[in-house]
Amino acid sequence: MRKIIILVSLLIVSWGAFAQHNHSNMSNKSKVQPSITVERSKSASTIIDNYMALKNALVKEDSKTAASLGKILYDDFVKFDATGVAEQHKKEVTTIIKDASQQAKLISDNSGNIAKQRERFEFLNKGVKDLILITGSDRTLYQAYCPMYNNNNGGAWLSTTKEIINPYFGDKMLKCGSVQQEISVK
Question: Among positive and negative, which fits the CA dihedral 141, 147, 149, 155?
Answer without folding.
Answer: positive
